[in-house]
Amino acid sequence: AQSVAQPEDQVNVAEGNPLTVKCTYSVSGNPYLFWYVQYPNRGLQFLLKYITGDNLVKGSYGFEAEFNKSQTSFHLKKPSALVSDSALYFCAVRPAGSARQLTFGSGTQLTVLP
Amino acid sequence: DAGVTQSPTHLIKTRGQQVTLRCSPKSGHDTVSWYQQALGQGPQFIFQYYEEEERQRGNFPDRFSGHQFPNYSSELNVNALLLGDSALYLCASSLTSGGASFFNEQFFGPGTRLTVL
Predict the structure, then answer these.
(1) Cross-chain Cβ contact B102/A42 below 8 Å
(2) How confident is the model over A68-92, as pLDDT tens digits?
(3) From residue B96, how far is each of A77, B30, B106 by CA, in Å?
(4) Residue A60: its chain B contacts at CB < 8 A?
């Protein structure tokens, strides 16, 4: 079975500081990994994905994520946080080469303080 | 280019009733997945439809059923509603045809908020 853990329910960071939202996963074989963001009363918006290749993936709105196979992690990062980045962030995984559905983590609420 | 649309936005039902939620996929997409997102939790996969057939199913009872139409739109039906069915129901579309389905990201609609009293 595949699973995702987001160990922090809440992350607070000051505007302009770097931010990290943590994600670890468990899956058979190689993973496809995704980050989504959810704003209040909105659906999930795709941020970035790791399929293969470079371990550092760049996505929308200045976000990036680093795939670490040995630590089975896919942490989301941004060098300089904005107040508008405040939202709920979800990490998701599916086995590579599989049509199986996405498994999501429980989400991390990011608050960027002005 | 319209994204994924869902209707209605909000819905209030009582226990035992039945409900139908609707989804239109993003233009060019042929696959629809449904998720249930309870308050404070991540989305949980219900099922996926492709070529008008249920292709995969998550750990949900038979009270949850669906349908996909020739224009790729989809419905989610829930019978005999329980209080625990109260949640945000998300529809996501993706593209399967062409062999790229395994790593194509899913595009989500805004969801339907279902409240069961």
Answers:
(1) no
(2) 999 999 999 999 999 999 999 999 9
(3) 30, 6, 11
(4) none
